[in-house]
Amino acid sequence: MIKPKTKAFWKTTLALIIGSIVVFGNVYVTQPILPVLTEEFQISSLMASMSVSLVIFSLGLSLIVYGPLSDSFGRRGIMYVSMFLASVLTILMAYVTKYEWLLVLRMLQGVCLAGIPSIAMAYIGEEYEKKAIPLAIGLYIGGNTIGGMGGRVISGFLTDQYNWRVTLLVLGCISFLCFILFVLLLKPSEHFVAKKLDWKLALRDYKSHLHNKTLLFAFLIGGLHFLIFVGQFNYLTYFLSDEPYSLSTTLIGLLFLTYLAGTISSSLAGKMADRLPLTTCILLGILIMFVGLLFTLFHHILLIIAGVLLFCFGFFLAHSISASWVSKYASFAKASASGLYLIIYYIGGSIGPFYLDPFWSNISWPGVVIGCSCILVATGFLSFKLKLIETPVVYLQEKKSTS
User: Contact, 336 vs 210, CB < 8 A?
Assistant: First the structure.
């Protein structure tokens, strides 16, 4: 077993961080350049947004398959193939002449990229000592944030200096170099035990979790929050690239450094959850997101950036806690419950641009704020429903401890 803070720990964890960076760097690479794609291919903002939505959708849907496959055929090999193919697809996208082909390749890329996040957690659980797992997972999730920010910043800068094709070509080459490092650094599996591939059992577990309202409400909260998170960032690129701001793709890419607020709130979430009920933390995250949205209605760019920072902080706080709720309240098959949370989370994110497009088309940015606020009202209601479930549980726990 990999012990905490040893050479093997840092080497293997670095490999997983690199894998995480590749995944989320590629997923969001087109988000800062959506207005550029709109102009280049003469398409609508909604059609351009599909370059983000389709990769997220196919990634989320593919998570259903990778868990059971890796339980039967191993972890490392599937992650190797996934990262290699995703890197090749990024390079191929730089040479497409029709937007439809770009979307096809993005969908295929989502299928490939899903092979890493769905398996990395299982690999950590098997190969690391229990004491080493929290730190390894924390660092791995930090890689998610770095990848999401890095891909967008690189995309904005290179597109501004050159063009979007150079952006994809460079990112594809970086991804391939990361793949080589991943292969060299990742420790061979020593504690993996193959299981019989049983699709019926996996589907039965998913079905049971969906019928459990205690979990279902948390699934919906996570999915709905990611829906507005992806959607509002998509339309924010159009809002800020137009008059009166006219920001370049470089500056729009830098806007995604606001993800750092999410890194902070994710790290604080665990400490908050030790002191406050989980539903209180989720509701606090929702309130912060709402305040952040209101800030974006002001016309000054610094207030808009402050609003985006607050929105990111609140989103990642609520996301971390709703995911923790699933882990805490799943009474069986916890891995499949967490996997189902991610599936609904990513599928929700893929729907965001479709949901917000009518608001954007008819009322511009204030419409996006209205659309996002409606979702926050819904998730606030679901959080109160969870609070009714949580309160009796907390009461019984306190009663047992005092008796």
Answer: no
Q: Which residues pair with 155 in a beta bridge?
A: none
What is the Cα–Cα distance from 161 to 166, expressed in whole angstroms? 9
pLDDT in tens, 234-252: 999 999 999 999 999 999 9
Token pair 């957690």 in the structure block, residue = 121
- Residue 326: what are its φ and ψ, rounded to 5°? -60, -45
Note whether 42 and 35 are within 8 A (CB).
Answer: no
Contacts of the segment 366-370: beta carbons below 8 A, 24+ positions apart: 366/297, 368/231, 368/232, 368/235, 368/236, 368/239, 369/293, 369/294, 369/296, 369/297
Over 80: is that where the pLDDT of 332 sits? Answer: no
Chain mean position to CA 253: 17
Residues in the chain: 403
- pTM for the whole structure: 0.87
CA–CA gap between residue 20 and residue 201 (Å, rounded)? 29
Q: How many angstroms separate the CA atoms of 329 and 18, rounded?
A: 31
What Rg value do the Cα atoms of the chain yield, rounded? Answer: 21
